[in-house]
Amino acid sequence: MDAPGAAPAAHRPSGRATPDPRWWRDAVIYQVYPRSFADGDGDGTGDLAGVRSRLPYLRDLGVDAIWCTPWYRSPLADGGYDVADYRAIDPRFGTLAEAEQLVAEALDLGIRTIVDIVPNHVSHEHPWFTAALAAGPGSPERSRFWFRPGRGQDGEQRPTDWVSSFGGTTWTRTTDPDGTPGEWYLHLFSPEQPDLNWDHPDVRAEHEDVLRFWFDRGVAGIRIDSAALLVKDPALPEVPDDPGPGEHPHTDRDELHDIYRSWRAVADGYDPPRVLVGEVWLPDRERFARYLRPDEMHTAFNFDFMARPWDAARLRESIEATLAAHRLVGAPATWVLSNHDVTRPVTRYGRADTSFAFATKRFGTPTDLALGRRRARAAALVTAALPGSLYLYQGDELGLPEVEDLPGELLEDPMHARSGGVDPGRDGCRVPLPWSGDAPPFGFTTAGTSWLPQPAGWAGLTVERQTADPSSMLSLYRAALALRRQERAFADGDLRWLDDAGLGPHVLAFLRGEGVACLANLGQEPVPLPRGSTVLLASDAAVARDRLLTCDAAAWLRLPQP
């Protein structure tokens, strides 16, 4: 008998992960935020036991790998991206032995594991930083970080006026043992995340050892957080108004590439080789592509596509530019609609402004969830049809909306706190998943409540409910990932626009291989399907029934051979 929430047998991939060393070029990778995925010990917080218990769900979904956000020992000042010890699992999530079991059990189900590395900074509770504070100015311990005296007569002014990624200043002043103000230390994010000095040999050696520690335990690769921020200009100049390529004092400096070449050598030393995936937020596509040269990273996240509005011309522009930039270095593109930092697609696509930017996030922004869900279904088929690898953030396959009415006292994200409460932060996309039942906590935990409360209205969005509904978002994703795996056309790296099909300017239409097309109607009027085409899958059931591509719908078609 099938377990509750299990996919129909026809949709289930089977077998251990294939030995293909180039698996990452077209893989489907599912992002697991462990704290909110599933709770295995009943304390209301997700953990590794919960992830292990739900691995069959991920197998049935049809993913090739999971990327786990930080599970290391951490005070969780920034959701685990403030690491205190890379070689220990935070007790709230489990043990190192459980992490090793998760990696092995996932692989037995055909799922590889990617772990997060956060090289720009550590936690303020990391032994290196506590030792640096205790050692005082000019000590070897402080040279691993960016400690500097302040400006002004008494050092009361910050060393620079750099602005934090979380808002506010990038410098915090220390207090000397006698109680007087001391040096300042740099943190591009929160004060609980002091930046490391990558000019120091200890920093480089330690991170390469961390890579080996996890590669030795069977992980297939690493995701590199804030990968373009590690290296700073040692002179610490102010940020120019319009810095030229490589001239920004703390972003995308040329010296970064030597670091990643060293990491690639470590990864290539394993059999099979391990994979490096970068989080690289850069508007310059040529500079972006430099991280993907054959001796550096394998892939990097494509945030440009994710941030674009629901507009055919704008999305096509992003697709073309992305593929062109990757083609120059022989790297596959990546496609993603959201992650643990970004407003969920169902909410975002239902707004008047369907683009995404951190600077514009505000409380009270209205959204039409029915419209957003319709567009998110179509976007799912578009991204799954594009050449390259596909990343899927947990809960997007369920069509979960952003939770925008969390009680203020439960908000933990430093982006909210450091904005003075103006930015709603990222907690709303991190609410625990609903698995089963008719009321919170929806099978997420056996405790009465989850660490962030789930909306009561999620009863219709549980895995259990959606598995039984062939028209659900989950059923759509399962069918799409199964077809993506089965159709040889999706294995072909090519994409050709169907400009001669006469579908109009508001329809994205492209061909994969020689026979499968993806059409998405972002306009206001239905569009007839091409003659002789067969609907393989559609985001709206009316497409196949009426032979019309309805508004805000997408379909995969088999076109007749000429």
Largest sheet: 8 strands, parallel
The span between the termini is: 46 Å
Task: Report the total helices.
Answer: 16
Radius of gyration: 24 Å
Say how many strands there are.
20
Strand order of the biggest β-sheet: 11-10-9-5-2-1-13-12
Helical amount: 25-40%
> What portion of residues belong to β-strands?
5-15%
Query: Would you tell me the structural class of the helices and strands?
Result: alpha/beta
- The overall average pLDDT, rounded, is 94
Low-confidence stretches: none
Shape: globular
Protein described:
It is a single chain. The protein has 562 residues and is α/β, with parallel strands linked by helices. Helices cover 26% and strands 15% of the residues. The strands form five sheets. The chain has an eight-stranded parallel sheet. Strands 14-15-16-20-18 form a five-stranded antiparallel sheet. Strands 6-8-7 form a three-stranded antiparallel sheet, with no helix packed on it. Helix 12 runs parallel beside helix 15 (473-486). The model has no long low-confidence stretch (mean pLDDT 94).
Q: In a nutshell, what does this entry contain?
A:
The protein is α/β, with parallel strands linked by helices and 562 residues long. Helix content is 26%, strand content 15%. An 8-stranded parallel β-sheet has the order 11-10-9-5-2-1-13-12.
